Amino acid sequence: MTASYLIGLREGLEATLVVSILVAFLVKSEQRRYLRFVWAGVAAAVALSVGFGALLTYTSANLTFEQSELFEAIASTVAVVFVTWMIFWMRRMARRISGELREKLAEAIRMGAVAVVVMAFLSVAREGLETALLFFAAVQGATTSAGPLLAILGGILTAVAIGFVMYAGAVRVNLGRFFFWTGLLLVLVAAGILKYGVHDFQEAGVLPGLNTLAYDVSGVLAPDAWYSALLAGMFNVTPTASVLEVVAWVAYAVPVLVLFLLPQKPPRPQAAPRTPTTARAAPDPEPAPEGA
């Protein structure tokens, strides 16, 4: 449930920030008539994400045991690739995303209402599809889906509430620190998802060594204890694990954490985006010659 809440909070806040940037741009540029097209694109993206999650669940439930394990293993691997890309993309683009979104929306407005719907849809759909895939991969092996589902919904609702109070100007959140710490935790979550994916590959017979254990601390880490459930649910740290599972966890977590913690290069200054009003204005005059 903790991992599901973190996924919902992180991905939900990214999507909420995208929507708030688009809405604020339209309000400030007096283009409110396009708000309904932005919300139409957002609604379509949410519907697609929910449908994608339902499709993953339905497909997994209607396969044989070996097929289901292989399907879940592939989904886990793809989820790790997506979450890794998302973490580093947001780390690199956090300071420029606002300007780029405003510029893309201004261009969509010049193209027409359909372009605005498509632009809003694409901006939010990526976060929604990532959320559905990560949630599906993170809850594999859970005894019930009700708890993780409520947890991810709670994370999304928390993100929406944070985004609303930020948009209203009632509170300021250090987004750099937020994305840093949630990104750090998500690296460990992704390592756990990859470990579970390797276990599924072994269950499906694709990889060997299912019964070749790297450790067995079940005598110390009681499987039914609350802290065992927390470690297993958050980072997939289990009382027993095969050699390949441990190798996969370490081989992913160590280099990705090192790369994530490396200092960033300062971003290049970005020109202010052109609003629809300025886009139709007369071009800037030629600069005066030197010495004039």
Write up what this structure looks like.
The chain is mainly α and 292 residues long. The protein has a domain at 2-188. The chain contains ten helices and two strands, in the order αααααααβαβαα. Helix 1 packs across helix 7 and helix 2 (35-61) runs parallel beside helix 5. The longest helix is centred in the first third of the chain and has 29 residues, at 65-93. The protein is elongated and about 65 Å long.
**Largest beta sheet: what is the strand line-up?**
1-2
The proportion of residues forming helix, as a percent range, comes to over 70%
* Largest pleated sheet: 2 strands, antiparallel
Q: Calculate the terminal CA-CA distance, rounded to whole Å.
A: 69 Å
Q: What integer is the average pLDDT? A: 82
Would you tell me the structural class of the helices and strands?
mainly alpha
Order of helices and strands: HHHHHHHEHEHH
> What's the helix count?
10
Beta-strand fraction estimate: under 5%
Shape: elongated
Low-pLDDT segments, ≥5 res: 277-292
Q: What Rg do the Cα atoms give?
A: 23 Å
Number of strands: 2
